Amino acid sequence: MIRITNLSKEYRGGVKAVVDVNLEVHKGEFVALLGLSGAGKSTLLRCINGLVQPTTGEVTVANLNVNGRSRELRELRRRVAMIFQQFNLVKRLTVLDNVLCGRLSYCGIFFSCCRIFSDADRELAWHALARVGLQDKAFQRADQLSGGQQQRVGIARALVQQPEVLLADEPVASLDPKSSRRVMDILASINREDGLTLLVSMHDVDLALEYASRVVGLRDGRMVLDKPAHTVSKAD
Ligand code: ADP
Ligand code: ADP
């Protein structure tokens, strides 16, 4: 599903954020990307959905080349959804409207401005809110919700995109332990029931080993670990 070949990213100023990474993620896997702050997790994830342009190397998702033509990139952005540590919701919009924003990736930015959502879009949004247990918050402003609830809105927004891959950049790093588990439980159920391929960066090793099927470790931009979760000991 995801194929990363000889990927390196050097930012302007000479920071080598990702160094020669090779990684293949198969359909339906739940991969935890572990590493300290600055290890390159975020950069690696952003190379997968085309938010960051790699210096060298190649990334394909479902055989679409991330560095391909703009048409290919647009199709890829529909298939690859992302959630973020700080949720990235539109604060002033309602929960439902935030979820509907996930439908915008279907058309270009030009059409987004004047797009009117269809009934089918709204059905999808309601279903997604049900999946994350937030239908009763649909008409509240996003910034009135707790952090854990906001991240669940982020997941619902990703789901209406009907993606094949979900990238999550430290999705529980800002949450308390109870909300973290709720979010991880939802991610696990999406992985199990919808067969969505998950690549989730995190720094909580215990949580990663509990939920993921495979763990990949990054240190200073290099891949230093790649094992099935059940074979990993903390010494690794
Ligand atoms: P992580 O997600 O593991 O914390 P990042 O990918 O955010 O790691 O960062 C990897 C390295 O790249 C760090 O040294 C960081 O300071 C640097 N970096 C990240 N983004 C940029 C950027 N836009 N410009 C320059 N350096 C960056
Ligand atoms: P399902 O098809 O799984 O039964 P729906 O997604 O149709 O569920 O609706 C789930 C819930 O959301 C229901 O309680 C329904 O009344 C409510 N709902 C669905 N669509 C809307 C809407 N456009 N406005 C307000 N409430 C809605």
Automatic annotation (TrEMBL):
Gene3D superfamilies in the cross-refs: P-loop containing nucleotide triphosphate hydrolases
Coiled coil residues, start to end: none
GO CC annotation terms, alphabetical: membrane
CDD domains with a match to the protein in the record: ABC_PhnC_transporter
InterPro entries: AAA+_ATPase, ABC_transporter-like_ATP-bd, ABC_transporter-like_CS, ABC_transpr_PhnC, MetN_ABC_transporter-like, P-loop_NTPase
ABC transporter domain segment(s): 2-236
Cited PROSITE patterns: ABC_TRANSPORTER_1, ABC_TRANSPORTER_2
Name used for this protein in its record: Phosphonate ABC transporter, ATPase subunit
